[in-house]
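Entry 14. Two folds queued back to back today. First construct below, sequence then structure tokens.
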Amino acid sequence: MPQRLSTREIRRRTKQIRRAIDGTRRRLINLKFIRTAQFPYRPPSVPKGIDPLPKKSKTGSSFRTDWARRTPAQTFRMLFSEFPMRPIIQFLAKPSMIGIDSLADIPNYQPVIFVANHHSHIDTPLLLTSLPIRWRKKLVVGAAADYFFSTRITGTLSALFIGAIPIERRKITRKSSDDIADLIDKGWSFMVFPEGGRSPDGWGQPFRGGAAYLSLRCNAPVVPIHITGTGAILRKGRNLPKPSKTTINFGRPIWPGVEESSRSLAKRIEVSVAQLADETSSNWWEAKKRLYEEKTPTLHGPEASSWRRAWELSGRKRKQQNPSRNWPKI
């Protein structure tokens, strides 16, 4: 049976604890003590001959973003996307949308994987203010871990303002794919730029297969999107934006096949985005004809010198500015 302490004994021990706390506080204030203090005021030293444990990084792909998907952060993000993000995007990009009605057949509570080409940092806020609100409410954006999550400050801002989650540029790791798949299974939609980075010259880059893998794993549809004009606003290497017109072309949802491979689905996704680019630069009928003839221009541009690629790109832009309206021959 524990011994009961008298009132005098309790007071005496309380004074001892207070003196110990006060002494610790004075030692911590003392600069000399801080410099020479050892364990437990500092981490213990590692014995010679033993490799120290590697420090766990809290930035990059290890940055935690679960707090950004809770109700307070979600509410803040929705309010921020309406004001000031939407007025700023309307002023800078003047977006026009094509094919948004193709999303009407998707069930209301079906999570979607949005896949788009990538020319500028404007692409993300442009899509965030253009998507229907039923997906914007629960949407995460795949962002480069080495760029947007290189420090705690940039990681926190990216997660809070655009709902970003860190992914590796080169490949999606097992941990990243598991985390994203869990979010999709919980009803979150996912937006990703499968090129892995912004275009350096205005032409597209090869698509990576992460979106196709997630679509097959979660049985979620992929919505291909092609964005035109954002490179003129804030291309890679430019610091100040310049207002211009943009076009967002939404394609029909792509559902994964029963026994389809990830490589086959990734090819279908890239061809769909290329077909949307062809449709934007010419017209729907001509783009469809080239699609069925398997002559759709690729997003990558010609394998030629830089001046030739720039010349070809300027020709495509002239077609976009002066589209010809060719009706089918009956």
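Second construct, same run, same settings:
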Amino acid sequence: MNSNLIYFFEWLVLLSFVLSSSKMTGGGPAQKRMKLQNRASDREEDEDDEEGGEMEDALVTIKQEFAKDLSKASEEVLKEMEETVLECASDLAKEKRTADLLWTLTSCRAVLPFLGKAKASRMLRTLLDFCLQTEEMKDRKILLCNECIEWATAQKRTFLRRSLQARLIRLHNDNASHTTALEMAGKLISELKKMEDRELLVEVVLEESKAAFALNNPGKARTALVMAKTIANTAFMTPILMAAIDLQSGILAAEDNDFRTAYSYFFEAFENFEPLPGMTNECIKTLKYMCLGKIVLDEPEHIKILLTGKRKYESPHLEAIKALGKAFEKRSLTLYHEANAKFEKELRSDVVIARHSARLYDKLLEKEVIRVVEPYDVVDLDHLVTRIGLPMAKIERSVSALILDRRINGVLDQSTHTLTIYRPASSDTAYKKAVNLIHVLERIVDTQYSHGYSHVH
């Protein structure tokens, strides 16, 4: 009996010890998991509240800065206000707070008169650029630019009005309104020629060149580019502007089928764009044109090497040009059509790629014809039609062109619809070696004869 009581008391002590240990450690595994999940959710809520609070603080800060009485503010106060507003607006742009950006752009006009002309221009242009970078503003971008131009005109801010008009011209080019861009550029260039703002003049002349090229007026495009280069040589230009000149030079060189020169221009443009912040789209465009140059120069296998180490620029546009390069490397029209179907938007929306698409197609057709006929001495044209999948008339034209260009050594028989290919005769080197040996022996005999004759006499 006593031993049973002892065992009972020992069991109670052990149970109480286990319970106290579980309380100290926060419960069992299930309770621990629940507590960890609760803590994680609390942390996420705190982070969300913190991010939302930061955005609200940014907007509140902007409102507080605009509410200040700036009539007697010092230069330091105005500078601090400008930096604070632009920093907060940058945060709003990163979070795509379009409505708040619009409010900031509209409300800033009340404080701009208190700033100097240079600071006011910088603030308005920067805020406008933030608004134009958001996709949500796609339908209102031109209207917003026009509103800012009207305000600058009313305030007699001539320099600001010109720079905003230059931005509007670029926007029209981006929206494929090239006729409007060309008209506006012509008027603004006439006005800027009377001033000393050469950098802005070069920017507008470049946009004129782009618009003229898009409207299939290469003569005017080249004239504008020469003018831009001439002005750029007389004054210091920013790296962005010099890269833009190189890019346009490459595009026009490609239009003249001088793709080696075009590639060198594209390479220089990429080298200038890459170190600069916010130039990702320009780098992608330049890389795309460099790949196009490799395709036209019959070097599609170099595209992979060209894009090595440039993973940060991966985009549908580069995937599209890589697909075209693969089609040319394999000499396959099927892959070409697949690439055009898959990346139709990326390939058709680019003026430069679309301009060269017909030339690329003809070039690839020739490559596929050569690939198909390579193993044969006599080829039935019906076989080519079946393999390539094109009408007989188009196949005949392509084969005839290849024969005339001496890329295929053969004869096209119209009566039997066959192509007879003549293989180049293998050159026999034995005769050439024998002749060389005779010449060597002749020189040896002549030398020995001359040596013996000199000893006799």
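Quick look at the second one. The two ends are 149 Å apart (CA to CA). Residues 300 and 325 are 5 Å apart (CA to CA).
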